[in-house]
Amino acid sequence: MKRLTFTFDNGPWPGATELLLDFLAERSIKATFFVVGQRLQEPGGIELARRAHAEGHWIGNHTLTHTKPLGEDGGLARVEREIGETQRLIGELSHPSRFFRPNGGGAVGRHLLSTDALSYLESNRYSVVTWTSAPGDWIAPHRPWLAKGIGELDDTDWTLLVLHDRFIAPMLDTLDAFLHELARRGIEIVQELPPACIVIRDGVLTGDKTTFSLADEPGRQAATP
Ligand SMILES: [Zn+2]
C-alpha cells in the first residue's frame, strides 16, 4: 500500500498553526512540524509548538533564521547558531531522534549543507530529514499546489510532503481535497518518516552525502537492516 507523511515547515505561525492543528485533530492525522527557532521566540510561538507536541505531532528543527541555506553560508559558528540555538529553544519538545531539516527553497541538493554543517549534525547525533514533494503552497497564487501535489504522488511509493502552516491554513479546503484524493487512491497517511528521506539517522550517515551537502567524496550506503 502506498503511504504519505505530512510535514509542515517554517512555523509556528500564530493565527495559522491553530487552524491547521484543529483541522488535523478533527481527522486524527499526525504530522511533523519543522519549526524555525526565531518563530518560537515570537509571541505565541512556543505555546503553539507545545500544543502541537501535546496533540501527538513531532517537532523538528528547521534552523534559527531560515535565511541562506547552510551550504551557501555554513561556517561552524553559523551552523552552531542556526542548529544548536534552535535545538535549545525546542528543548524537551524535540523528537528523541533530533530531526533537523535544512532549508533550501524547495529543492534537495548540494546547497543544503556545508561540510561543517554535515560534521556538526553527525557529531551531535541529529537525524537529517529531506523530502520527496514540495509542491509550492508558498508560491502565489498558492492554490495550484494541489494539482502539483497530486501529480507528484506518482513519483514514489512513500511521499514525504512539505507544506507550510502559514500558507496552507488560509486554504484548508485544498488540503481537504488532497485528503479525498489520497483516500480515493487508497494511500495511507502515516506519521513515520520514509527511511529514504532520513539521510543521517541519529548521527549516522545513511544516504549519499554528495546529493545533499558539499562533501565531495561519494557517500557510503549503510546496509539496511
Ligand atoms: Zn523551510
UniProtKB/TrEMBL annotation:
Q: What protein family does this chain belong to?
A: Belongs to the polysaccharide deacetylase family.
Pfam families tied to this protein: Polysacc_deac_1
Residue ranges of every copy of the NodB homology domain listed in the record: 2-190
Task: Identify the taxonomic lineage of the organism of origin.
Answer: Bacteria, Pseudomonadati, Pseudomonadota, Alphaproteobacteria, Hyphomicrobiales
* Gene Ontology MF, one: hydrolase activity, acting on carbon-nitrogen (but not peptide) bonds
Q: What does this protein do?
A: Is involved in generating a small heat-stable compound (Nod), an acylated oligomer of N-acetylglucosamine, that stimulates mitosis in various plant protoplasts.
InterPro entries with a match to the protein in the record: Glyco_hydro/deAcase_b/a-brl (IPR011330), NODB_dom (IPR002509), Polysacc_deacetylase_ArnD (IPR050248)
GO biological-process terms attached to the record = carbohydrate metabolic process
> What name appears for this protein in its UniProt entry?
Chitooligosaccharide deacetylase
